[in-house]
């Protein structure tokens, strides 16, 4: 019998066009996603160099970064929407790349659109000029973010030169406690391992917690892989994946589906496959998380106190904590719960899918956004927005005083001008709490959708498990 | 791509861990970014004070380090977003070599696409190099030689670094990856022909109207 292989090794080996040296391969790229920020620029550079898109049929473009999320928006509603979103549209048209523009019923955030349309398939290699491309690995794919020069290379050659990363497996077992969701699991892992533990590694998530998790939860987990340095995060496809994928528009149909399914079932880590690093996590120990610092690893249970710089082992990390406390306007030793907030953002490629919105709506229902708080809900795609409206989620949010907006990246990265003001504190379901991420001087606390909704209705960072029951529930 | 064979100049120490690419090139300037203008806002949160004036404590604002060509940074430098503007900005400031214990993977690759050499060295060595680089008066006597994969410090210490042969050749000869890959495009066609038969669903996508 042949040597047992990891899922990662199977995916990598199946895509080698040519070996270019020790640990260096030319890999075939099955799927390329393009957005209006990195994609539009790279397409323009390709054209300037007189190169062609080699396989436009394997590409998908949709605007998400630069466009406004304002209800009734057009490209011109944001400062750079026409130039970048319009540029992407024009380049896609000129090159024959499939494009979901602002009026298209499938427009959305690239990392939401790929899986929900079946553009992302198990076993595929997918790249995008965006570090959160790791998201797609939740479908059993090998997906990673690249820079704009590499993007030009992929468009021109449909391949990419890559060094083989090491393989790491994170096994998460056990039941999640009440109020604990996928976002808390991955923030806990990042906090536990540190923000560089995954550097140079392809990470597979496994264990009973993952096996029992919804597709949308797995997408959230894989999305944040890059926040501990791993360019690729993946989950082996299983019945949950196939159920999610079966009726999507771009997935294979009928006989082709059966043939694909037989192949996809082989894409699991073999018994006895060796990983360069193994980590085990006990799901029952995970509490709802909220970040306090300026890096996703600076996270804590909502029941905890803000750590002191001295609690960090090394001088460099102690200084980081000092800087983070100052930027965030927090005091070491204080309870994180009770910290007053100004803004709440529910959205982004991390947490803008239907189940995310349902969990937030369950908290919002019958409550009111606190007076001092401005709270936004930005669905990840037009299909999600439509589905949410069909079940009345938008009415719950609007009645509670949330804004219900149009799909895109919006306040996660503020590249469309939708910034959090300097000094304002925002609980956000997005992926990064870096200095200035949501706008210069903005203070970001990352959390899951239910925790974000709880912050909106109480006006402060709140343990959602402690929300007073509504009278009608009593 | 422009060649990078040898480099001589001041090395600037930036002993701060986890400097992300949002800090290197803030999003507010990316919509208008170009290789030519990106340096104006590079490191903005560290380099400038709230009123827009230079932060005198930031190393690249100090008189001895304004013309640095080498940056010695804390661990996990360039983590986060894939934005290649971070490398454009650093290069626009005149830096062609970044030394750190570790880097964000995407940033590390992007450096090589822009003729900037990232060097990974053990934490202890990085700390010693930072000490030698000082924080008051820079020395122009740091030298990097790509062909011999060596860094020479003002004191004459020689540090050897790892550099895979393909990366080394690309820097020395200024090779363009796209041109190199296109030379053997027939291999990709052969791969796709065979793969199309094995995995037709990858190539024959359905439609969305």
Describe the structure.
The complex is a heterodimer of chains A (474) and B (209). Chain A is 31% helix and 17% strand. By secondary structure, chain A is an alpha/beta fold. Chain A has two domains: 7-278, Aconitase, domain 3 (2-Layer Sandwich), CATH 3.30.499; 289-473, Aconitase, domain 3. In chain A, strands 5-4-3-6-7 form a five-stranded parallel beta sheet. In chain A, helix 2 (38-48) crosses helix 3, helix 6 (182-193) packs parallel to helix 8 and helix 12 packs parallel to helix 15 (449-458). The termini of chain A are far apart. Chain B is an alpha/beta fold. In chain B, helix 4 links the parallel strand 4 (97-100) and strand 5 (117-120). Chain B contains nine helices and eight strands. The termini of chain B are far apart. Chain B has a single domain (6-174), classed as Aconitase, domain 4. In chain B, the strands form two sheets. In chain B, strands 1-6-7-8 form a four-stranded antiparallel beta sheet, with no helix packed on it. Chain B has a four-stranded parallel beta sheet with strand order 2-3-4-5. The model of chain B has no long low-confidence stretch (mean pLDDT 95). The longest helix of chain B is centred in the last third of the chain and has 14 residues, at 185-198. At the A-B interface, strand 1, strand 2, helix 5, strand 8 and helix 10 of A face helix 4, helix 7, helix 8 and helix 9 of B.
């Amino acid at each position: 019998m042949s040597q047992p292989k990891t899922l990662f090794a199977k995916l990598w080996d199946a895509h080698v066009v040519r070996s270019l040296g020790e640990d260096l391969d030319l890999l075939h790229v099955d799927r390329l996603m393009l957005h209006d920020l990195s994609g539009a620029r790279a397409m323009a550079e390709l054209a300037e160099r007189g190169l062609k898109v080699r396989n436009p049929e394997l590409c998908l473009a949709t605007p998400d970064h630069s466009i406004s999320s304002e209800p009734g928006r057009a490209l011109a509603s944001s400062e750079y929407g026409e130039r970048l979103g319009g540029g992407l549209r024009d380049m896609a048209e000129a090159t024959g790349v499939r494009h979901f523009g602002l009026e298209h019923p499938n427009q959305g955030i690239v990392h939401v659109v790929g899986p929900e349309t079946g553009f992302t398939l198990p076993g595929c290699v997918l790249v995008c000029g965006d570090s959160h491309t790791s998201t797609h690995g939740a479908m059993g794919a090998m997906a990673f973010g690249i820079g704009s020069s590499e993007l030009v290379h992929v468009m021109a050659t449909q391949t990419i030169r890559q060094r083989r990363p090491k393989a790491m497996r994170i096994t998460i077992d056990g039941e999640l406690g009440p109020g604990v969701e996928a976002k808390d699991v991955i923030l806990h892992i990042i906090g536990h391992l540190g923000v560089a533990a995954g550097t140079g590694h392809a990470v597979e998530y496994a264990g009973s917690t993952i096996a029992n998790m919804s597709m949308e939860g797995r997408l959230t987990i894989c999305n944040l892989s890059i926040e501990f340095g791993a360019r690729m995060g993946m989950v082996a496809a299983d019945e949950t994946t196939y159920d999610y994928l079966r009726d999507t528009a771009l997935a294979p149909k009928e006989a082709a589906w059966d043939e694909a399914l037989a192949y996809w079932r082989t894409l699991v880590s073999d018994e006895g496959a060796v990983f360069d690093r193994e980590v085990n996590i006990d799901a029952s120990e995970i509490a709802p998380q909220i970040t306090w610092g300026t890096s996703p690893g600076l996270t804590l249970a909502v029941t905890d106190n803000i750590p002191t710089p001295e609690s960090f082992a090394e001088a460099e990390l102690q200084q980081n904590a000092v800087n983070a406390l100052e930027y965030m306007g927090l005091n070491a030793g204080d309870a994180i719960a009770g910290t007053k907030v100004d803004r709440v953002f529910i959205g982004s490629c991390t947490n803008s899918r239907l189940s995310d919105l349902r969990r937030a709506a369950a908290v919002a229902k019958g409550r009111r956004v606190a007076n001092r708080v401005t709270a936004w809900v930005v669905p990840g795609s037009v299909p999600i927005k439509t589905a949410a409206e069909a079940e009345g989620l938008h009415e719950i949010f609007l009645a509670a005083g949330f804004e219900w907006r149009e799909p895109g990246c919006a306040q996660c990265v503020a590249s469309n001008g939708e910034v959090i003001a300097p000094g304002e504190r925002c609980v956000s379901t997005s992926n990064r709490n870096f200095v200035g991420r949501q706008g210069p001087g903005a203070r970001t606390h990352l959390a899951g959708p239910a925790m974000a909704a709880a912050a909106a209705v109480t006006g402060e960072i709140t343990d959602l498990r402690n929300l007073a029951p509504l009278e009608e529930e009593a | 791509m422009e060649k990078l064979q040898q480099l001589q100049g001041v090395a600037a120490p930036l002993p701060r861990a986890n400097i992300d690419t949002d800090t290197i090139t803030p999003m507010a300037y990316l919509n208008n970014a170009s290789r030519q203008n990106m340096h104006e806002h590079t490191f903005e949160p560290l380099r400038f004070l709230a009123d827009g004036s230079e932060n005198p404590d930031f190393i690249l604002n100090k008189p001895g380090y304004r013309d640095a060509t080498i940056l010695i940074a804390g661990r996990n430098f360039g983590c986060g977003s894939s934005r290649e503007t971070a490398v454009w900005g650093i290069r626009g400031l005149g830096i062609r070599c970044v030394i750190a214990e570790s880097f964000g993977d995407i940033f590390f690759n992007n450096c090589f696409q822009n003729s900037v050499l990232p060097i990974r060295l053990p934490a202890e060595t990085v700390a010693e190099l930072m000490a030698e680089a000082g924080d008051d008066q820079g020395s122009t006597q740091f030298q990097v030689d790509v062909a011999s994969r060596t860094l020479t410090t003002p004191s004459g210490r020689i540090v050897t670094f790892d550099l895979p042969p393909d990366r080394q050749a690309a820097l020395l000869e200024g090779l363009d990856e796209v041109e190199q890959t296109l030379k053997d495009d027939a291999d990709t066609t052969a791969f796709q022909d065979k793969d199309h038969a094995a995995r037709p669903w990858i190539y024959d996508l359905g439609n969305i109207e």
